[in-house]
């Protein structure tokens, strides 16, 4: 990192400031106001929703997001693109907004879109404009000064929109252009969501020059009963290994993933399949799940929406961002002065089964790890036990645990109706409902008297002669505050628990968010919580628990206190303040 910083300093002054800023994390436990997170992406204030246009460009990560510069609530007619830059995807400096609703083709809002790096290195943004007639159109924008390493200013050419709203799509149902990819014929393609004759469709547009776009007659995918879908993301994954692929890669040893966000359920779903660049269509691997994407795999079984991935050429990986909204009231948003966070960036790759994605926090999170504690290998967690993991401040922490299951004998029988609704099952069988094998897992963000706590746990069921592993986050006692939305969160973990007899859990705790990764990232659950004890200055506690009748063992447990990252602290329009840059420079 130091070498990189020095090299960069020699080239670009601002980049240098930024990299120095990146190495300045320190432990500040009070993250600044009610529920404010310490290492998740948030603007300094105001409303944010969808992640937009993430990219790695000339040694710098850029992140854009749907942003209301005027307040903490969504403002349908006035959305801008917030913009931040980072050297490491952990520490971020806020820049001025990149796109604002100022032109006839986006007068009522600059909505979601994506970035593409063109041959030669020019970055391009495609985004949805809500035009002066309140119709959704697709626009392009380019850096005003392509040699500015921070790409601070963006220009929207007057020839926009590049894609007018089509006659067979309602004016308010045509949006969210994806990152572009190149077909073997040398033409660019993008995916755009549009409702055609009442059918949620993912449309493909092709272009030779990034300016004139022509729609393919067949959609990439059509989901007949799903209602409007949005934020399409089509990307290749390697059949083997964890390396990511650029969005244009399309070889024999690759699969494609199509991710869609469904308005009806406000959830993200994905399917692994094959993409054919001759017909620009997508064939799902798991045909039995049908064309209604609400039956596809869930990206996260908690509170995330409108996710978007990008190819990180610096580390050859695919990285996913997703929006996690607040679960309390609009009045709370206004009182706090902000609303919405992004999940911690996740690396994505294809599981060996060829059907599911594995998701894992990017390794840069380890730069925030400070004090570490562990549990002796093989520690037995008896029926009814509650073991405190003491010694770290656990309201911002990273916990990795592996449970070993000596026996599955006591697994509860599963009524087949539950197979369709794991959320409801988690609701009926929360952490306090005793079982056979499980519930066991972690208790996080617990007050000293356990009055408030959030449980992340597993429970094994027997279904015919097979076992099903359920993972849940139980929010029912997460906060004593009234008016907080606390739905059950949960999904099955698609792995053979009988063969493995062990299950891993990684949980990122950050004041008002608990992001959990079960079974090596097969099942993910992001939960928003608002513990009152933390607001009054009381410490949060961390435990391992078992409320099953069978004992389980902890074959590994490590927990780290995490430092507070530098996330947009300078202000919304402050860039990297020269003063702070200068101080840091003299320290260096
Ligand atoms: C956008 O914000 C401006 C400034 O606050 C306001 O005057 C205008 O009415 C807003 N437009 C819409 C459509 O809400
Ligand atoms: C994308 O990846 C493919 C396959 O690895 C490679 O052939 C192609 O050159 C890459 N394209 C770019 C723009 O990096
Ligand atoms: C945001 O949170 C509310 C609960 O406050 C929930 O009902 C809603 O579905 C969420 N929206 C999205 C887009 O996740
Ligand atoms: C375990 O079950 C008992 C009895 O239902 C309950 O009182 C206790 O709170 C449960 N533990 C957890 C962590 O939910
Ligand atoms: C800590 O929690 C206890 C109850 O568990 C409460 O009585 C006390 O006021 C809290 N302390 C602070 C500093 O808020």
Automatic annotation (TrEMBL):
CDD domains: GH32_Fruct1-like. It is an enzyme of class 3 (hydrolase). Residues 364-561 form the Glycosyl hydrolase family 32 C-terminal domain. It is found in: Secreted, Cell wall. The keyword Signal applies. GO terms for molecular function: beta-fructofuranosidase activity. This is beta-fructofuranosidase. It comes from Zizania palustris. The lineage of its organism: Eukaryota, Viridiplantae, Streptophyta, Embryophyta, Tracheophyta.
């Amino acid at each position: 990192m130091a070498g990189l910083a020095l090299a960069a300093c020699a080239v670009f002054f601002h980049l240098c400031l930024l990299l120095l800023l990146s190495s300045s994390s320190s432990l500040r436990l009070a993250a600044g106001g009610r529920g404010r997170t310490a290492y998740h992406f948030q603007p300094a204030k105001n409303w944010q929703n969808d992640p937009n246009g993430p990219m790695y460009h000339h040694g710098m990560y850029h992140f854009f997001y749907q942003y209301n510069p005027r307040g903490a609530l969504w403002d349908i007619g006035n959305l801008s693109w917030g913009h931040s830059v980072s050297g490491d995807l952990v520490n971020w400096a806020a820049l001025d907004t990149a796109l604002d609703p100022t032109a006839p083709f986006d007068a009522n809002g600059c909505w979601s879109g994506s970035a593409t790096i063109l041959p030669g290195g020019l970055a391009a943004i495609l985004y949805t404009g809500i035009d002066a007639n309140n119709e959704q159109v697709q626009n392009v924008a380019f850096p005003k000064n392509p040699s500015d390493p921070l790409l601070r200013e963006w220009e929207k050419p007057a020839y926009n929109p590049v894609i007018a709203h089509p006659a067979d799509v309602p004016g308010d149902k045509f949006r969210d252009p994806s990152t572009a990819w190149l077909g073997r014929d040398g033409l660019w393609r993008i995916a755009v969501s549009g409702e055609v004759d009442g059918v949620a469709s993912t449309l493909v547009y092709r272009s030779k020059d990034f300016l004139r776009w022509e729609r393919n007659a067949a959609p990439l995918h059509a989901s007949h009963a799903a209602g409007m879908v949005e934020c399409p993301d089509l990307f290749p994954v390697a059949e083997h290994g964890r390396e990511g692929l650029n969005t244009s890669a399309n070889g024999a040893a690759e699969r494609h993933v199509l991710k869609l966000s469904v308005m009806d359920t406000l959830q993200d779903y994905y399917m692994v399949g094959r993409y054919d660049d001759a017909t620009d269509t997508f064939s799902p691997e798991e045909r039995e799940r049908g064309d209604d994407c609400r039956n596809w795999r869930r990206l996260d079984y908690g509170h995330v929406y409108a996710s978007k991935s990008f190819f990180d050429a610096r580390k050859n990986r695919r990285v996913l961002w997703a929006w996690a909204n607040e679960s309390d009231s609009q009045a709370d948003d206004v009182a706090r002065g902000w609303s919405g966070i992004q999940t911690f960036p996740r690396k994505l790759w294809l599981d060996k089964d060829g059907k599911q994605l594995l998701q894992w926090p990017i390794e840069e999170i380890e730069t925030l790890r400070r004090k570490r504690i562990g549990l002796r290998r093989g520690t037995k967690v008896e029926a009814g036990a509650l073991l405190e993991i003491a010694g770290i401040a656990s309201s911002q922490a990273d916990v990795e645990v592996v449970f070993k299951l000596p026996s599955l004998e006591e697994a509860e029988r599963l009524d087949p109706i539950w197979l369709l609704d794991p959320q409801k099952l988690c609701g009926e069988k929360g952490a306090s409902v005793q079982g056979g094998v499980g519930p066991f897992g972690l208790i996080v963000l617990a007050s000293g008297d356990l009055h408030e706590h959030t449980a992340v746990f597993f429970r094994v069921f027997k279904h015919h002669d097979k076992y099903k592993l359920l993972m849940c986050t139980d929010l029912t006692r997460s906060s004593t505050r009234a008016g907080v939305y606390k739905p059950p969160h949960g999904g099955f973990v698609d792995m053979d628990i009988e063969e493995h007899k062990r299950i891993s859990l990684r949980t990122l705790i950050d004041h008002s968010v608990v992001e959990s990764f079960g079974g090596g990232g097969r099942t993910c659950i992001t939960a928003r919580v608002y513990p009152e004890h933390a607001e009054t200055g009381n410490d949060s506690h961390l435990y391992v628990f078992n409320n099953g009748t069978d004992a389980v063992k902890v074959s590994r447990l490590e927990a780290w206190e995490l430092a507070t990252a530098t996330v947009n602290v300078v202000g919304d329009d402050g860039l990297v303040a020269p003063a702070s840059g200068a101080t840091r420079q003299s320290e260096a």
